Amino acid sequence: MSEREFCLLYDPWILVMRHDGKTEELSIIETLSRAHELKDLSGEVPAQDIALLRFLLAILHAVFARYSPDGRFDDIKSPETALKRWSELFERGSLPMGIITRYLNHYKDRFYLYPPEKSFFQVPSLGKATYYTAAKLNGEISESGNKIRLFPQRTGQNKQQLSYAEAARWVFFINAFDDTAAKPSEKGLPSPGAGWLGKIGLVMAAGESLFETLMLNLILLPDGENSLWDKEQPSWELELRSEERTAIPLPRNLSSLYTIQSRRIALQFENDKVSGYYLLGGDFFSSENAFSEQMTIWKLNKTASNVPIYTPKRHDPSRQLWRDFASLLVQSENNERRPGIINWLSRLKYEKLISKSHFSIKTAGVKYGDKDFFINDLFSDTLTFNSNLTKKSNEHWIWRIIEEINTSEKLVRQTAILGRDIARAAGDDSGETAMNMTKEQCYYQLDLPFRAWLESIDPDHDDIDSTCDEWFGTAQRIVRKIGAELVEKAGIKAFVGREIEDDKTQKRIRYTASEAYNRFLYYTSTRKALHGGK
Known about the structure:
alpha+beta, 18 helices, globular
């Protein structure tokens, strides 16, 4: 049985997209050396791309925390050195491959998919581990032994085996986003939960090229402030750890965080293919105040002692990213905490190290089912806004934009109430289905116009009142058009109406389409009337 060696440094396995839209597979060395020529990573799913991006960033952190772009050993010893190092790299326009290649070749034995004894993402022997076929490893079709997809994208032999390149990509995905289905080898062991990236509300900066994306996310100062990271310690520089479900301290350097071994994995090889894998829980740490993580939205948890505790806020796939604008941009004295990547971008802008007029923020993740026991769905989103909105002097703009989002949600609510009341008038005692469908339609219709409006804002030159009034007028027209369409389709029964007994007051309330529409027109007529509708 032939199992050829497969070195991640030199064998092609990373899927990338060129600027002409075509994709190809490259090795680690090729990807980094051509990053300025490439549009982006282009794996099977966006969540896989972010897992791989963080891996590439771990390499850059490990190298440039210690070496200058020209290859001299020169530790980052101050915030000024960090900013100067970043600027030198960015101004080059491409990555200095001399020092990167020399560094990676020093650890070449740790960058193999096969044989697994040399891989930093595999443990050669896992004992009583849970076994899965290749169909579970492949996140596009991800299925377990007792839950088979009805309409799989791959069937037969193609589903039961993966090429080395495919398996390498999915190993990174599984390590980052694995569910909690794998059993421990013995009772009494702690639960590590889902993979680390599955626990957080992932956000990252997106650039015009892979090089720019890597540079924007190369956060050399924690939260963009004046402290330094601890010594970089990527997993390939450390001894291979095989202990199951191991609680570790919060990593305080990004190369360590970005290469955390959330799972112990042992691939099964057969005739130059991967047929399956064994899996156990790996390293984990508390997510409370885990501020080393720079790529997540945070939520504040109230405690009895009034000590603020922040935990990562997962994305809701049903919500567009712009509806969480406050979580992305707010940084005030009211215990709000925005993602570290936003603070870093703000610092780069403040130091005049970048001249970008706009920042694009990208999210990607997975939606889990029952207690994170399986993956239900995968999602991604992108939001673009003027880079000057990150400046402290423009914080009043942030709050006004948040007000407009809240106003938009009130407009949606009034339209959803109209849909519910028309349904009740036509014979649906609940109207909840109609309400939810109307709400979904409103957000769908508002989505592109809001993104365009947000992207058009120039906080240093626009008038804030007229800009916000412009959006209110746009949103009002959109929801009123939807409301008029609901009435047009209501039917005679809805206009005749009916009485329904209210569950709370026990009083009978009459519903008609015309009365519901008049209320809707009133409450959506002005901001004041809208707020009166609660």
